[in-house]
Each structure stands twice: as C-alpha cells, then as structure tokens.
Amino acid sequence: MRLNVTVNGERRQADDVWEGESLLYVLRERLGLPGSKNACEQGECGSCTVYLDDVPVCSCLVAAGQAEGREVRTVEGLAEGDALDPVQQSFVDAGAVQCGFCTPGLVVAAHDLLNRVPEPSDEEIREALAGNLCRCTGYEKILDAVRLAAGAR
Amino acid sequence: MTISTETTGVTEAQGIGASPVRPDGTMKVRGEFAYSSDLWHEDMLWGATLRSPHPHARITGVDIAAALAVPGVYAVLTHADVPGVNRYGLEHPDQPVLAEDVVRYQGEPIALVAADHPETARRAMKRIEVGYEVLEPVTDSEAAVAGQGPALHPGGNVVRHVPIRRGEQNVTADVVVTGTYEVGMQDQAFLGPESGLAVPAEDGGVDLYVATQWLHVDQQQIVAALGLPPEKVRLTLAGVGGAFGGREDLSIQVHACLLALHTGKPVKMVYNREESFYGHVHRHPARMYYEHGADRDGRLVYVKAKIYLDGGAYASTTAAVAGNAATLGVGPYDVPNVTVDCWGTYSNNPPCGAMRGFGAVQAAFGYESQMDRLAEACGLDPVEVRLRNAMSEGTVMPTGQVVDSAAPVEELLTRLRAMPLPAERSGELDLRRLPGGVSNTTHGEGVVRGVGYAVGIKNICFSEGFDDYSTARVRLEAVGGEPAATVQTAACEVGQGLVTILQQIIRTELGVEQVTILPMDTSIGSAGSSSASRQTYMTGGAVRAAALKVRAALVAHAARVLGHEHTELSVAGGKVVSRHDGVLADLVDVLDGEAFDETVEWRHRPTEALDPETGQGNAHVQYGFAAHRAVVDVDTELGLVKVVALDCVQDVGKALNPQAVLGQIQGGSAQGLGLAVMEEIQTRGGVIRNPSFTDYLIPTVLDMPPMRIEVLELADPHAPYGLRGVGEPPTISSTPAIVAAIRAATGLALDRVPVRPEHLTGT
After folding, report:
1. Topology annotation, domain B5-33+469-603
2. What residues in B contact A141, CB-CB < 8 Å?
3. Where in chain B is the domain with CATH 3.90.1170.50?
4. Which of B104, B363, B597, B710 lies at 20 to 30 Å from A107 by C-alpha?
C-alpha cells in the first residue's frame, strides 16, 4: 500500500508498505528516521514513543495504515536546528544517558509530561515515565533530568 | 607550578575527577546515534534464524526446498553451508554455529534465511521442515555432578569443578548455621536487541558492523567458522544498546556474515525481544548449600559451601563464573577455615554465561543470607556480626591471596548504618508510596516495614592467569590552529561512558581540550572485553600509558625547540609550561606541523591459576566492595513489596567521572533490585515460559526508590590513578540487602530469589 503521513512537519510518502508493518517500522526502515527505538516491539518498553496527532503512543503498536493522513512527531523533530529542546539538553547535562537506547522514548514522554504539567512532583514524574523501561541508569538521573528540564522551561 | 588559573581551570573542568558531558550524548538525545539495529545499506537483505522448539532433540532431517521457493528469498543455509569449523565458544568451542544432528536447548539455531523483507524471511523460515526425535531434557545440576543422566557433551556434564581448601578441614564451632539457597536465572535485558549488518567485500572477505563487548574475540570465532584469515573479517562497533555481559557470546555475528558471503549482498539481522531471550546467555541459576561455624561472639571459625551453577547447553564462560563463585564464595569476610566446592554444569536449559557480577552475585545471596542467620543465632545486630568478621587490607583470602590494597568493609558498613533512614509512613495517604501503588490494593493495612544490610565483593579485571591487556593509540597534532588529540582503541563503549573517560584522561595527561575518540574497530589490537568492571582500568590504563609516551616525546621536542631542560617542562591547558618560568609557549606553536603518535599494549600485573586441588593462588588483580541498606514495605496479605529506600556506599579508589560513577551504582543497584523481587527466566523442562517484557519484568521508575549514595576514594596503588572498577559491585549487595529487609519485615526465611508474592503469602 501507499502511505501518506506528515512527519516532523514534512509530508512524506512511502510505497509498497506491507499491511502488517508498524508505524515504527515505516519510520525506521522506510523514512530514514531510526531515532524511535525497537527494544521490545510489543508496547512494554516505551522506547518507540512518538507523538501521533499530539498524543504520545508506542509506534510499534500503531499499524502503519492507522497513521494515514495524520501527523507524527518523533524524537528527531524536537530540537530546533542545533538547539536542543530543554528536555534533551537536560538529559545530556544530568547524566541521564548511558547506552541511550531508552532515551528517545523517555525524551518524548518527558516532553509530553512537561507540556501537560509544567512543574511535576516526583510522584507525577514517576507515574508519567512508568511506561518507559531503562536498564542502565536506575532512573535516578532521569528524574534529575526531568526536574532540570522543568526548571529550564 | 605557575601556570595561570584560567588554563588550569579549562583542563581540570574536563579532565579526570570532573564530569564532562558524554561526547555521544547529544546524538543520543536527538535520536541520531546509529545503533546496530539502525544500520541500513542499499540493496540489503534481512536475515532470520530458525530455532529449535525443543530443549533436547535429535534432528532427523531438514528440508529447505519450500523455503527456498518463497519469492524474495535469496538464501537458506544450514550447518552444511558453514565453510570453516562449525563450533564456537568463549572458553571451549563447543557450540555449533548451526545445529547438526542434535539440539541441546530451546532456541538453538538450525537454519538461516535471507530475504528482501523481514516478514518474507520469517515466513520462509516457517516453511523449513525439520524432523525431530524429541529427547528427555537434562535439567538438574546436582544430578550432573553425581554423574547421573545422559552426557550432553563428550567430556560429560561437568564443565568445571573448583575446590577451595584453606585451613583446617575438620573443624567444629559452638554456633553453626546452615542454609540452602537458590538464585533464579536472570536476564541482562539490555534494551538494544542483538543486531548488525554484514557487508561482503570485494576481496572475498566481509565487513561486520555489530553491537558487542569484545570485537577481537568475536573476530577470532568468526574467522574460524568462516574459514577466512583475520584480515578478511573486519569488525566495527555499531552503537550498543546496553550489554551487561549478554553480548560477550556470539549472536548474529557468524550468521550475518554467512548470509552476506553466500548472497553477495549486505545482510541485516535484528532479533525481536522474544528472540533476544533465546539469542544470548543468561545469569547462571544457582543452588547453594552453606554451613557457617562461629564462636559465641559471632566470629567465624569456618565456612563450608557447595555451589551448583547450571550453565545450560554450552560452556560459554561457565568455567570462569564457577571460579568467581568459588573464590569469592565466603564474601568479604576474614575466614580462617574454608571448604568450598563449586561446580558449573551442562544441561538442556538455556546457555548461561556472563552477567554483571559474574558468579559473585549468586554467592553473595548465599553468604549474606547466612550472615543474617548467624547474627540471629548469636543474638547480634546484622551489621555488628559483619563488622566482627569484616576483611581488611592484609586479609588472607580463601585462595591464600593476601589483599594488598584498601578493603574498607568496616567503613562501608559504618557509613551505611549512619545514614538517615526514610521517614515512617504517616498522615496523608499517597497510594504511589505503598506496595501495589495506584492499583489501590492497600491503604496501609497489612503493610509492614523492614530494614536489611548486605555487603559484597567482586574481582576486577580478568583473573586466574589470563593474559589481560588492552591496546591504545594516541596521536597529538595541530588541527585548525588548535592542539588536538586522537584516541584509537578497540574497547567497546556499551553505554558505561568509556568514551568520556578516555577523553578526560587525555585532557589530564596532555593538557588539550579537543580529544576525538575514533570508531572502535579491529584495525588496532585488542582492548579485551567490556566486562569484569575492567575497561576504565585496562583501556584507561593503556590510553594513559600511550599519552605519557606522547607527552615524553613532545616534551623532549619542546625542550629542543625552546632551549629548556626537558625535565623542567610539562604541558597543561594547551601550553608548554616550565616548572620555574611558567608558560613558555602555546602547544600549537611548539607542534608546528609535527605529530606525535604512540601505540601501547598495556597489562595489569599478572595473576596466577588456581591450584586444581586446593584452589590456592593469587588469582585476582583487584577486589571491589559495595554495601547496601534496603528499606522495604511489604503488603503481607498480597505479597507485594515496595522498596522504600536503597542506600549504597562503595569504594571506587578514584572517581574519574563522579557522575558516571553514580550512574553505575544506581543502575547496578536497580538490576540487583530486579533479581531480588521480580526478575527470573522461568523454565520448565528446559522450556522458557516468559520470553517477553510482558512476562519477564524489569524494574520501572516506580519500582526504584531514591538512593542515598556515598562514594569512597581509597586509592589502589597498583591501579591507574588508584581507581577501582565500579560497574559490578553495586549489583552484588543490592539483592541480599533487599531480601534481608523483606525477612526483617515478615519474619520469613526466604531462601530463594526472586522473592515472589506466593513466597510471602504462603499461597
């Protein structure tokens, strides 16, 4: 099938998409946007989190066809040119990035949280990020990063 | 020294002891860092692996005809297509690249498919017809040691027996406590799945881009299987999404190369999460029998232990894991009489090998559970009994090795005990702070609190006489009017932040700000594995040694150019400085088009093999120590545990990057928490029952409590900068501390991890 989708503000088209492909697969393998990650491909780890019409979703659980005509914003679409989004900068500064495989999903999830709740409590941060697994950091520095980003925005 | 504070400031801000940001951090937060599963090549194919559904079976036939006929399929390969030796392995080459006549574990690779779409490859794979004669699986380690059951390998089912004998063997004591303990099979659960891209080359060789922990040992195994000379198999490290030991053994490496060479096209392979559970080794499950004898004051007289480690179908690193569990089997305590026997065995369970803590984790659950039992038997506080037996510098280990640098077990424990405890639950109800969380399973009724302590020990670097070295090349030259250094190694950055550390070392030693870390590949000598908490020590040591050679050559050159005694000169902040006259010149002017380039192969001091009868020998290079205190709330009605606090004190010798040290302690502690209360690959008859993140749970941000951490820096005079490996110790003591806290809360014996709800409710 042919898929038309707006990604990071740009209209994109993909041809010969197999109906069983996920939005994650199309982003990574057909549109040259591998930033969203493939850690579990079953909606458990959150590493593939993207905005779909401004709502964060696990793109591995979205069939490619469901994205037809809709707007997707991925981790690659958060920075403005060379200027990182404050959430991205805070992850770097706080040491919240080790292997970094969870980072794109966590950055999008934290970005969404701070859009909804500009000054979240620790409990609110934990609840908002509970769907994103990280195996390296023990989450302490991820919490630091979100607090730092909240202060910076 | 009279260098200006400004230039000193520049160097120190980015040198060792500071916490500069990671050089790959920006790319990682932008989603632009290329992990091994992100790779793409024009005209590439996708590889898939057919795996055995049976833990133990004879293969009666493989028919690939139907799979080959699927449109879009380019190759279907079996063991007959392996041109070299169809065996690989880290310590013993006992594992087939593709199974021949027998499969020994569920998930063992049998055939490979390359196709133009991953789904095509998967569908074709399902059309391969394999005939099986299913055999009874061998699953019991103790039976293997007793010589029972069919031999899975020509030498029988014992991979290694490690005896340790120290002091009196028939000694008695006034107080004796015994226990039998079990540790479940833990998974590394790195988030970046096994993956890579193999590209056939015009010279008949292949270039492999892969996520791994040790490029050169991969290369050795690949060339043997492909029957190619090493120069025709070139490896480059692709972005690694975590490792924790799970990438020490081969996964897609030989398979992707075989498909690429066979089809003449680039081949990408990526496991999904389920396949990843079958595609790498796990932490050895253990059964341990301990007997501790002490005097009435709680001072240890002897420890006897039998430790059985189930290595699964193939050897992997089982022999070394058994060596660690045995030599570290009594823990960080001074024990005059020791009788330990540790066995690593074969079975038809999933293969087990390296995971963070490597044998020390299993033993620690045994000996720390015993120390709590001893405390109770002697009427002592759990910390007090540990203090009375704490080892220290000068202690003789069960191997006879004298510990010759700091072993601050007493200080770790006293500092830990002095940390403030979290406040008792009171007043306002917040479900999120209770066991069960927002599932609203309790408002505090049936919830009890407990506190537990544990301390652990780990050997750092490779042991038992292994020739452990790392190779580093450092180049200094002027680039664009600035002095710039380049570092080349084959050391795998797996997330731990080695790339940052190497930059810091260069800044400190050469006084230049701009440091480029070249991609890691096999065009330079081996760096050894990113394992055993060793890379900062080993590749850090190699880079430092190469930098010192560069500095010596540079200073000699500067002395000639500037007409000074070279013994007076040094470099700092991008300047050449004299001890007496201060800044003499800009480094870039002294370089004046010259480049200084040095390559060094660097070793730690040698270790010895263990005596095979007595287990005596100076087997380890360095020991690392951490201690944890856990506070838990337990809902006794539902068996739910909330870890309220998990505090840690660790000695790191020298914190080269304090932020990264904390990150290692926090992350390692979280993996220990996982083993304590949730993580286990559950097998039945060799079959994995939970190969997914739905059923194999790892800690989320809701499961990890805030941590108080104290880092000690007691320099090891034998190590570069006095550093002590950081990565593994925090994984070791975290688990027993949490279980001790659950025991304190509930009064239950709890002799198995992970502790599951039914262990707490008795249902």
Report:
1. Aldehyde Oxidoreductase; domain 4 (3.30.365)
2. 659, 662-663, 666
3. 37-135+193-240+247-279
4. B710
Q: How far is CA A43 from the centre of its chain?
A: 13
Residue B674 near chain A (CB below 8 Å): no
Q: Provide the total of helices (H) and of strands (E) in chain A, helices listed first.
A: 5, 5
3-class SS at B148? coil
> Parallel, antiparallel, or unpaired: how do β-strands B233-237 and B175-183 relate?
unpaired
Say yes or no to pLDDT of B648 above 50. Answer: yes
User: Which residues of chain A are within 8 Å of residue B707 when distances are taken between CB atoms?
Assistant: 138, 140
Q: Which CATH number fits domain B282-463+609-761: 3.40.190.10, 3.30.420.40, 3.90.650.10, 3.30.365.10?
A: 3.30.365.10
Question: What does the alpha-carbon distance between residue B256 and residue B254 come to, in Å, rounded to a whole number?
Answer: 6
Tens of pLDDT, residues B322-338: 999 999 999 999 999 99
A chain contacts of residue B704, beta-carbon cutoff 8 Å: 138-140
**A102 within 8 A of B191, measured Cβ to Cβ:** yes
> How many whole angstroms separate alpha carbon A110 and alpha carbon B721?
38
Three-state SS at B143: helix
Q: CA B643 to CA B704: how far, in whole Å?
A: 7
d(Cα B214, Cα B471) in Å, to the nearest integer?
13
What pLDDT, in 10s, does the model give residues B224-248? 999 999 999 999 999 999 999 999 9
On the question of pLDDT at A81 being above 70, the answer is: yes
Q: Which two tokens stand for residue B245?
A: 């030991």
Number of residues assigned to chain B:
763
Check CB contact under 8 Å for A137 and B671.
no
Whether residue B25 and residue A133 make contact (CB cut-off 8 A), yes or no, is no
| Contacts of B540 by beta carbon, 8 Å cutoff, 6+ apart | B498, B501, B502, B505, B656, B720, B721, B723
Q: Where are the alpha helices (DSSP H) in B451-564?
A: 498-510, 535-562
Two tokens, residue A68: 């037809």
- Give the number of C-alpha atoms closer than 13 A to the C-alpha of residue B523, restricted to the C-beta side: 10
Q: Minimal Cα–Cα distance from A56 to chain B, Å?
A: 16
Residue type, B192: G
CB B268 within 8 A of CB B195: yes
Buried b (16+ CB within 10 A) or exposed e, B132-152: beebebbbbbeebbeeebeeb
CB within 8 Å: A89 and B706: no
CATH fourth-level superfamily of B37-135+193-240+247-279: Aldehyde oxidase/xanthine dehydrogenase, a/b hammerhead (3.90.1170.50)
Inter-chain residue contact A126 with B24, CB threshold 8 Å: no
What is the predicted pLDDT for the residue at B653? Answer: 98
* A133 lies within 8 A of chain B by CB: yes
CB B146, CB B72: distance < 8 Å: no
In the block, residue with structure tokens 């202060």: A151
pLDDT beyond 60 at B709: yes
CB B307 within 8 A of CB B142: no
Contact B745, B448 (CB under 8 A): yes
Nearest to B487 by CA among B463, B461, B465, B509: B509
Whole-number pLDDT of residue B566 = 85
Round to whole Å and give the CA distance between B353 and B367. 21
Token couple for B62: 């493989």
3-state SS assignment for residue B415 = helix
